[in-house]
Write a structure and sequence with these properties.
Layout (H helix, E strand, L loop, with lengths): L20 E2 L8 H5 L3 E2 L12 H9 L6 H7 L4 H13 L3 E2 L2 H7 E2 L24 E4 L7 H6 L3 E4 L26 E3 L5 H10 L4 E7 L2 E8 L2 E7 L6 H7 L5 H12 L4 H8 L7 H17 L5 E4 L16 H11 L4 H9 L4 E4 L4 H7 L3 H12 L2 E2 H7 L4 H14 L2 E4 L14 H10 L2 H5 L7 H15 L9 H21 L2 H11 L2 H21 L3 H14 L4 H14 L4 H15 L6 H13 L3 H15 L3 H13 L5
Antiparallel strand pairs: 1-4, 2-3, 5-6, 7-11, 8-9, 8-11, 9-10, 12-13, 12-14
Helix pairs in contact: 2-4, 9-10, 11-12, 12-17, 18-21, 20-21, 23-24, 24-25, 25-26, 25-27, 26-27, 27-28, 27-29
Length: 644
Amino acid sequence: MPGAAGAAAGAWITMAARCLLLEIDVGNPPADWAAEAPCPMLGVDPVDKQLPQRTRVVLARIDGLTPLGELLAARPVPPATLLEALVRLHADGLIGFSPEFEAKYLRSPPDAVPPVAPAAPSVVPPVAVAPVQISRATPAATAAAESARPATFSVPPPASIPPPLEPAQAPPATEELTHERRGDLALRPPARLARHLSAARYTGVLVLRRGEVAKRILFALGAPVNAESDAPAEELGCLMHVRGKLDDKMFAAYQHLRRQGREPPAALLELGAVAADDAARADRWRAQAVLYEALMWREGTYELGEPGRFPVEAPRYDLGLPNLVLKAWREAPFDDARRKFFDAHHNWYLVPGTVSDETVGKMRLNPKEERLFQSIREQARRVRDVMEITPLFVTETYRFMDGLLALGLVELSEKNPTETGPVDIRELPGLFEAMKAGNFFDRLSAHPVSTDQDVEDARQRMLARFDPRYYSNLRPETRERLERMKAMIEEAYEHLRNAGRRKEYRKAQYDRGRLEYFAEIQFRKGEIFLFWREEPRTALEILASAYEMCPDVSIYAASYALATARAYPDDRERRNEARLLLERVLGRGNPAPKVLVIAGATVRLLGDAARAEQLFAAALKGSGNAPDIVQLVDQMRKRTTAKT
């Protein structure tokens, strides 16, 4: 083979864990390999494949006529890179080989485990392949090439069906496939059905019927990959004639061949109306035309085939559904029958679906349409309500609603299925992000110095707001968000329900300044229960949190000791705890007059009246007989009784 001398012997060329391998010794390739000409598969845009630059160079040189020997001799890339590019292009469905070549030279890795064939027909992702019989003369570069290639060959699907898309490539289903296998297209137009099947990642056949005409739309992993019709007007030749791609004389010849039993592609190829290399492109164009006409239907019935059952022999194309749907958005017919349909459903709701900003941008709405569409997107509205708020003329509004329904952007529902619950659904995304960013106290909307009961109450309060059980008509994404919020609430509760863990978490979350702020609030509240309401046990629980946050603040420690002595006058262990704490406070030196008064009251309760009077006197002297200290001393003398 020209240009191959001296090349290093090649081994396995591995593209991916499951990719087919091209088993060729580039140093000594066989002659029949050199004569094989890869055929480009039409009907899919290579730009979508994000191919490496070198692979694009190889693809640009593949014309269906140049054998592999000449490609390698031209050396646009190194031999190993060429083989790697061929494997990549074949795996992406951009090129095909003759069946003999694939059977002989396409292999699986030596250590790969062959996939187990399912009992049902295989499910394959949409790729551009076309099992169209193509007859053409093949110019040979060498005598070996001429003798090696037959006069006719087929471009079939890959001999080994590629596996379904991996999860990273094919997003998971966002909707559960409808249980309704049959229905009325007036309520579920084809575009809306297609949106649902895409969200459900449906693989199978959707059959549409209207009168005597039936169409079969083939779906693979949620994408329509082919469309067939039993209407004679939707044969490839008839479509080409209607659209001016076939003149009357050629069409008459085409009809003659059809009457003789020729299939449409074969008849067009025989007449030269379609070039051999354009057969796949023409078949894709036909499938798009059939699908587009189906998107215009507003009456008839639909039937969903068994999920997972897909005719593997059918060609698979990228039919460009989003563009076809948007085209049908403006061109769909509207007549009195459709108007009567909306009049009969004037109390039904137009329920908005999930619509991306990109889709809205492609709709090219005028300002009035945009305002009306925004009002429908905000909430479900009755048809009669839409007619009252519309800025459009009556007929334009009917057409607009019909277009939204046909596009699958809204659906008709007899009952109002708007998402409702304790919290406005529109506020949930912001609340979810705030909860995710906050700490455990924030998640429960609980104060950092909450008690056990406070934490329990906060949990119940938050669950009442965000538990999915208290919502109705939830969409999958909203339910998922609420479930995650519920899980975050439960996580925060489990961490904060224990007082010891709660204290440690509080110290870890807040700096000294914030702790002093919280402690001061608790102290002021505890004073009310201790000195005015005469509820020492309630005061003790509150003052304990102030002392725990700032144990070096003397007035918090002294107040905690007084509350302990008053709350448990007969508990020897607690009285000793209060006595030791008080000694530490007085031992710090120069305590404030108010601290001395509280310490004197505690000592008096513990049975040392003489020392209590000494502390009261020191407080009066240190404050210069300040009125507030004099009043506090009198109060403590009246409310404390020595305990022997």
